[in-house]
Amino acid sequence: MQPILAIKGLTKSFGPNVILRDVDFEVFPADVVAIIGSSGSGKTTLLRCIDLLEEFEAGEIRLDGEQLGYRSSGGRRVRLPGRQLAMQRAKIAMVFQSYNLFPHLTALGNVMIGLTRVQHKPKAEARAIAEAWLERVGLAERRDHHPSALSGGQQQRVAIARALAMEPRLLLLDEVTSALDPELVQEVLLTIRRLAEAGTTMLIVTHEMRFARQVSTRTVFMDQGGILEEGPPEVIFGSPKTARLAEFLANVSH
After folding, report:
1. N or C: the chain end with fewer CB closer than 10 Å?
2. What whole-number percentage of the chain has pLDDT above 90?
């Protein structure tokens, strides 16, 4: 089986600060990879590089074998022009901590907009797709409500529906419960769990350790910009090989 996502030697700096250090890993179809680690370990920057929101200094990212973000020219790496970047980004969907919904559009309108503006689908077709995804995330009855009339958990589920309506090859989720009140977290986690059970390929940055252990097919522990350990969740959480991972898990369990 060929990986959907293959990352080799990814290195990213902000000025003198190295954020990602020689990161290597792969994601296969129907994988649910949970990325855990302390704040500042490079988790969100990794997702932003995959989604082509950040440039990086070295290494490569490939989606279905196609190099993302750059091409080689005369022995040098050259950033792709905006139109090509947009075409590549259309194959990946990212959901952020803050829902980033359009306040003037209803839930239905927010899910439809990418289908009509980016994929140029007819309005009737886009509406049918959007309604189907809102039903899948349990929001069919709230489709005509604007974001201001939705709870944080409902807004985040709209954001997830909007991302998946575009039929991406890979879904990136960046701490999607961190801005929610505790009582709203579970409804979003339940939605993600159902997507995992349906075979959606996902890369999830999360601080919800119990969720990562229960839902991920593989867990990646990042520390100081690199991948320190990765493996099945029962191994990562049950038998950490490094003192750093054991320390991290002891701290977050309290």
Report:
1. C
2. 82
Asked whether 80 and 69 are in contact (CB, 8 A), the reply is: yes
Neighbours of 229 (CB within 10 A): 18
Rounded to an integer, what distance in angstroms lies between the CA atom of residue 254 and that of residue 251?
Answer: 6
- What rounded mean pLDDT belongs to the chain? 93
Read off the pLDDT band of 203 (50, 70, 90).
Answer: very high
Helix (H) or strand (E) run with residue 62 in it = strand 58-63
Across the strands, what pairs with 226?
A: 223
Q: How many whole angstroms from its chain centre is CA 49?
A: 11
Distances (CA, A) of 28 to 56, 63, 110: 23, 11, 29
Strand partners, 94: 172
Instruction: Give the number of other Cβ atoms within 10 Å of residue 76's Cβ.
Output: 8
pLDDT tens-place string over residues 113-142: 999 998 999 999 999 999 999 999 999 999
In the chain, the percentage of residues whose pLDDT exceeds 70 is: 99
CA distance 104 to 182: 27
Alpha carbons 240 and 253: distance in angstroms, whole number? 14
Structural tokens at position 169 = 């090859």
Report the C-alpha gap between 245 and 29 in whole angstroms: 27
